[in-house]
Design a protein that fits this description.
heterodimer; A: about 260 residues; mainly alpha; Fumarate Reductase Iron-sulfur Protein, Chain B, domain 2; two-stranded antiparallel ribbon; 4 strands; B: about 300 residues; alpha/beta; Glutathione S-transferase Yfyf (Class Pi), Chain A, domain 2; Rossmann fold; 2 domains; 4-stranded parallel β-sheet; 13 helices; about 45% helix
Chain lengths: ~260, ~300
């Protein structure tokens, strides 16, 4: 496996001397750069297995580090620290502390699937990113990301009623992430939306907000899905060496990050 | 496109999905109107449910597969249809993905079978229906030549950037009919929307970001990232000389509209390009009115531009 050691060299580990003469030879500045010896004592040998136990990361072992994912990545183009190839490498080696340095940005994968399109080994890097951010949350390394909170609100509505109603979803999400709906751009958008809207449509949207759309005959499907999700979540927690699921809505709210 | 598709697609099961009942209402409306004007039959899937969108898979991917399979099961087993048409990229993608998983992954088929039995309906089996996008639908059932014959008020060289987004082409393996030789859609450089709008009289600009990402999955949870991605798309379209970005997905469409305003109000980056569903543009060319097509429902206000061009 090719090793991109450059990514592992941190600026704080580089030692240089402005003035240094060794045995009469001037090696000042650039010529005296050394990398601090690094000792890694906290390999997590179970890391790859744990991550691979979460949905999406089943094929992480196939990766041969070509870097096509990072090369194609939408988020990497905005932030070079967002590096799927590197994180897959760290997980496979079990270098947990290195991985944790990037823990606050991994959830930012936008699921555009450019990586999955480019990957020659069917690793499904998009799924690995989702599994990784899930792993970080389950292990308590990060609070629930805004993205996960949105996914939970969304899925909860779908499982309960079979359909979603966007107004309710946005309102609940903003509330759980502690954001106000009174943001200038949002107000401006609503203003523009209302400019030409006919009354009939407004009434229809208002009605949907009050009644919440639902699929008919959904109760049996809801029960089946809830059973399955409960069993899967218990399985995942066992795979990660965690106790049975204790989470409640209140605990989720306390986890909320502010963005 | 072969003749059997021309006939097969004339009457299809219609799966609008949640967004088309909410923010994407104008897409729903214009799709139905265009279908009507072209003499195509849409039969809405009864008691449909959400496909899982971009969110449910992050709770559990197999639940997403089940949700999508239920829609196809109703179309096939309850309605006896053999084609499901979904205008929303998210719905289209998820149904295609479920189709692929059910055909290739026994574990997915097992879970779908178990959940369907518990939920009291027939399990969907791979191959029972063919899922298509609104673009496939019009392209195959009517085609460019058919469209040209029906155009009553051509788009008069309106300069359009065609924006397809992520879910219509990626990942490649769930779209076995794409990249399949002459006449098929390309996952690398899609062209079905370009073809249809050119036949309707638009001038397609050279637009390099056809399949770029608008950050739709994080449009609210990581808004700054989405705004940057959208601004990139808007600017590229303007640089390419486009007056309009044509969309074929309600999430992309509302993302572009929302972050166009956000880029302006929050970061001071103003862009002028208008955002219009491709079905609205086709509808105008077919002689339908702006109101019939829901153009007044768009946040991006294109009425003035279209009037100045003599299109409304």
């Amino acid at each position: 496996m090719p090793i991109h050691e450059k990514s592992l060299i941190r600026p704080e580990d580089l030692k240089t001397h402005e003035q240094l003469v060794v045995e009469g030879v001037d090696v000042s500045g650039h010529w005296s750069t050394f990398i601090q010896t690094r000792v890694i004592a906290d390999y997590n040998e179970a890391l790859e297995e744990e991550v691979a136990a979460l949905p999406g990361a089943e094929h992480i072992h196939r990766c041969w580090q070509c870097g096509s994912c990072t090369n194609a990545c939408t988020v990497n183009a905005l932030n070079p620290d967002f590096n799927p190839r590197f994180w897959i490498y760290l997980v496979r080696l079990g270098m947990q502390s290195e991985l944790l340095r990037d823990k606050d940005i991994i959830w930012q994968c936008v699921s555009c699937n450019k990586c999955t399109y480019a990957c020659p080994r069917d690793v499904n890097p998009e799924g690995v990113m989702k599994a990784l951010s899930h792993w970080l949350e389950l292990k308590g390394h990060t609070p629930k990301s805004p993205s996960m909170i949105f996914d939970e609100e969304f899925s909860e509505q779908v499982i309960r009623r079979g359909r979603i109603e966007e107004g309710r979803l946005i309102q609940r999400f903003f509330k759980r992430t502690g954001q106000t709906l009174n943001q200038e751009w949002l107000v401006e958008m609503v203003r523009r939306l209302l400019r030409h809207l006919p009354l009939a449509l407004l009434a229809r949207l208002g009605l949907a907000r009050l009644l919440a759309p639902r699929s008919r005959g959904w109760a049996a499907a809801r029960a089946a899905i809830q059973d399955y999700v409960g069993a899967q979540q218990a399985r995942q927690r066992r795979a990660l060496g965690l106790g049975e699921r204790l989470e409640t809505g209140a605990a989720d709210a306390a986890d909320t990050t502010q963005h | 496109m072969s003749d059997d598709k021309t006939d097969k697609y004339r009457r299809v099961a219609y799966y609008p999905g949640c967004a088309l009942e909410g923010t994407g209402h104008a897409y729903n409306r214009s799709t139905r109107q265009v279908g009507k004007a072209l003499g195509l039959d849409l039969v809405e899937v009864s008691d449909w449910n959400c496909c899982g969108a971009m969110e449910v898979k992050n709770i559990d991917p197999k639940i997403q597969t089940y949700l999508s399979s239920r829609v196809m099961s109703i179309a096939a087993n309850r309605m006896g249809m053999d084609v499901v048409m979904a205008p929303c990229n998210g719905c289209y993608h998820n149904l295609k993905k479920a189709e692929y998983d059910l055909a290739h992954d026994p574990a997915s088929a097992e879970v779908v079978g178990r959940l369907s039995a518990k939920a009291g309906h027939d399990a969907y089996r791979a191959g029972q229906v063919e899922t298509i996008h609104a673009l496939d639908w019009i392209k195959a059932a009517i085609g460019e030549e058919g469209l040209r014959q029906r155009v009553r008020n051509g788009l008069k060289g309106l300069r359009v950037a065609n924006y397809y987004g992520c879910m219509y082409t990626r990942p490649r393996h769930i779209f076995p009919e794409k990249d399949a030789g002459p006449g098929s859609e390309s996952t690398f450089e899609p062209h079905f929307m370009d073809d249809l709008l050119a036949a309707a009289g638009a001038l397609n600009v050279e637009f390099p970001l056809k399949t770029a990402c608008c950050g739709g999955a994080h449009t609210l949870s990581d808004s700054d990232t989405s705004t940057k991605l959208v601004l990139n798309i808007l600017r590229a379209a303007e640089t390419a000389g486009a007056e309009v970005i044509a969309t074929e997905c309600p999430t992309c469409h509302s993302g572009l509209e929302m972050h166009q305003i956000r880029a302006d109000r929050k970061f001071g980056h103003k862009t002028q390009v208008k955002i219009i569903y491709f079905t609205q543009l086709l509808g105008l060319a077919l002689g339908l009115t702006a109101r019939q097509l829901g153009l007044h429902e768009n946040v991006s206000d294109s009425l003035e531009l279209l009037a100045a061009k003599g299109l409304t």
